[in-house]
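Margin note: ligand = magnesium ion.
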Amino acid sequence: EAKTSGRGRAMVYQESMHSMVQRRLRVVSELGSAIRSSELRLVYQPIVDLASGRTVAVEALVRWHHPHRGLIMPDDFIPVAEDSGLVVDLGYWVAEAAIKQVSEWQSLLDDDDFRVYLNVSPVELRRPGLSEYLRDNLERFGVPTNRLALEISETALMSQDVAGLLALKGIEELGVSLEIDDFGTGYSSIAYLRQLPVDTVKVDRSLITEVTDDPRQRVFVGAVLQLIHSVGCRAVVEGVEEREQAEVLFDLGCERAQGFYFGRPMSPEAMTSRLALQARLARGPDGGR
Ligand code: C2E
Ligand code: MG
Ligand code: MG
Ligand code: MG
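Resulting structure:
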C-alpha cells in the first residue's frame, strides 16, 4: 500500500532519480577508462558533391565499443561527457585519431579541398588550447591544416561567450575551417551568421524529411539554401536517405549532401577502399599519366 501513498510515490521518484544519477556516474567512470584503453573508434561518413557524386569530404563520428554492453552510440554518452567535462579528453582523442587517419589517406586525396570534419562540443571550445593541440597533431602527422574542419552545432555556436568566439578565431587563423552543424534546429540571426568565421552550413535532416512530397517544405528549404548562399557559405544537407530527395535538393541549388543514400558511417578500412576506388577512377586506366 506504500505505493499509492504520497510517501510511496516520493520514494519511487527518489529511486528513479537515484538510478539515473548512478547510471550517469557509471558512464562517467567507464568513459574515462574507455578513452584511455582504446574502446573508442571512429567511423567515417561520406559527404558528396551532388553534381559529380564524388566524395568530397568525410565526417568522423565516434563509437564506443563497451566490453560488456557492446556498441554504444554517441547520443547515449556525449551529453554525459559534456556535463562531466570528459568531452575535452574525448575530443582530444577524436582529433588525434582523425588526423592520423588523414595522414594515411593523403596519397588517395587528389582534391586539395577534401576535408575531414570533426564534431566539437561547446565545452571543448571554452577550454584554452584546442587550436594548439590541433596544430601540434597536424604537424606531428604531416597533415596540412586545410584538411581539417570543425563542426559546431548552431545552438552551441549561438551560445558562445567571448572566450569561445576567440577560440573560433584562433582555429580559423590556424587554417582549419568551421562549419555550422544542425542548422535550422536553433535560432540564428542572419547578422550573426555573417560575422562568424564559418564557410559551410549543414542543414539539419529534420528540415528535409518531406522535401519530395510537401511543396511548402521544398519552398522553405530553397529559402534556407538561398540564405546560406547569401552570406557566402556553402550548403550541405544531412539525412538524405532517398534518391528523390537528392534530386530535389540539387534542383534547389544545394551543392553537397550527406546521408544513408550516399553511404552510412563506415569503418576506416571501408572508407579507404571507397577513396582508393575513387582515386583510381579519377586517374584513369593509365594511372593519369
Ligand atoms: P551530427 O554531427 O549531426 O551527426 C549526424 C548524425 O546523423 C550521425 O549520428 C549520423 O550517423 C546520422 N545520420 C547520417 N546520415 C543519416 C541519414 O540519412 N538518416 C539518419 N536517420 N541519420 C543519419 P551519430 O553518429 O549517432 O551521431 C550523433 C551525434 O553525436 C552527432 O550528430 C554529433 O552531434 C555527436 N557526435 C558524434 N561524434 C562526436 C564526436 O566525436 N564528438 C562530439 N563532441 N560529438 C559527436
Ligand atoms: Mg556533425
Ligand atoms: Mg548534424
Ligand atoms: Mg544532426
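The radius of gyration is 21 Å.
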